[in-house]
Design goal:
The chain has a six-stranded parallel beta sheet with strand order 3-4-5-6-7-8. Strands 2-1-9 form a three-stranded parallel beta sheet, covered by helices on one side. By secondary structure, it is α/β, with parallel strands linked by helices.
């Protein structure tokens, strides 16, 4: 079984991780978190989301975060936008890369963005047209790709069709999201293989939540298919405000430990990354409970 020589880790804690925190954090702390993450060698650190402040108050300062950020050369700081209004705000703040999102579940799409899947694709088409005029890269998140909290299992053919349509609209990268962490290894690999029949695997990414402790096993199963982009959230921060019981994201420390132990390059300094996890956990007033953070890295580990 072959695995890729390298994997790009996409850090999502500052957006997907913090959006579920009940207490609104200071802008300066968010900026410091992003800058510390970039200093670990991560190539992509998602910065924020330009959603309506009343929907997610935690991200009301999106423009300030992006404008105050000291951008490290070689690091990309994408932002998420729900529509053209969000895109206009993002571009005004100097967004370097844009993310959009939809879902493979009608129920979740309605709950998350108050529209049908078809309506969300129409919104995305308008956003992508403007993004392409600005010459920026785009990523799409496809939520509930492995299962929905209301509808249950999601047909792989539906996920593949939606991913193909997103690619046709102009998305450079499509992240398959296990939003509630229901996937298991063989099902995750089958889903990825099915989607890869519609979209080149090089254009796919994995965004797996670790709700049931399966995320690392799912990623390992998918790596042999050829995927080279994996999302993580330092200290496992985050869940989903519109999916009850979604649990935390996969901790970036844990996936970095897995990949580096397999000899797969990430470019990330694992010990510095662990220190960032401890930093933000302390600021949030709780212990860093992720596995690698708790157990540490053995001496001599790469």
């Amino acid at each position: 079984m072959s695995y890729p020589d390298s994997v790009k880790l996409v850090e999502v804690a500052a957006r997907d991780g913090l959006q579920d925190e009940p207490a609104v954090l200071e802008t300066a702390l968010k900026v410091e978190l992003i800058e510390r993450l970039a200093d670990t060698g991560l190539p992509v650190v998602e910065a924020t989301s330009f959603v309506r402040p009343e929907r997610i108050p935690q991200l009301a300062d999106a423009g300030q975060v992006l404008q105050r950020l000291r951008r490290r050369p070689g690091v990309t700081y994408p932002v998420l936008v729900p529509n053209l209004t969000g895109l206009e705000r993002a571009l005004a703040a100097g967004a370097p890369e844009i993310g959009v999102f939809t879902a493979a579940s009608e129920t979740f799409c309605q709950r998350n963005i108050n529209c049908t899947i078809e309506a969300s694709l129409a919104r995305i088409a308008g956003v992508l047209e403007a993004v392409q005029e600005a010459g920026l890269q785009t990523r799409a998140y496809l939520s509930c790709a492995l299962g929905c909290p209301d509808e249950g299992p999601v047909d792989p053919a539906r996920v593949a069709n939606l991913a193909g349509r997103l690619r046709t609209l102009g998305c450079d990268e499509i992240a398959l999201a296990d939003t509630i962490g229901v996937g298991t290894p063989l099902k995750a690999r089958h889903k990825l293989e099915t989607v890869a029949e519609e979209v080149p695997v090089e254009a796919l990414a994995l965004h797996f939540h670790d709700t049931r402790g399966q995320a690392l096993a799912n990623i390992l199963a998918c790596l042999s298919v050829g995927v080279r982009v994996v999302d993580g959230s330092v200290a496992g921060l985050g869940g989903c405000p519109y999916a009850e019981g979604a649990g935390g994201n996969l901790a970036t420390e844990d996936v970095a430990y897995l990949l580096q132990g397999m000899g797969i390059r990430t470019g990330v300094d694992l010990r510095r990354l662990m220190a960032v996890g401890d930093f933000i956990s302390a600021r949030l007033g709780r212990a860093n409970g992720r596995r690698v953070a708790r157990a540490g890295v053995p001496e001599g580990w790469p």
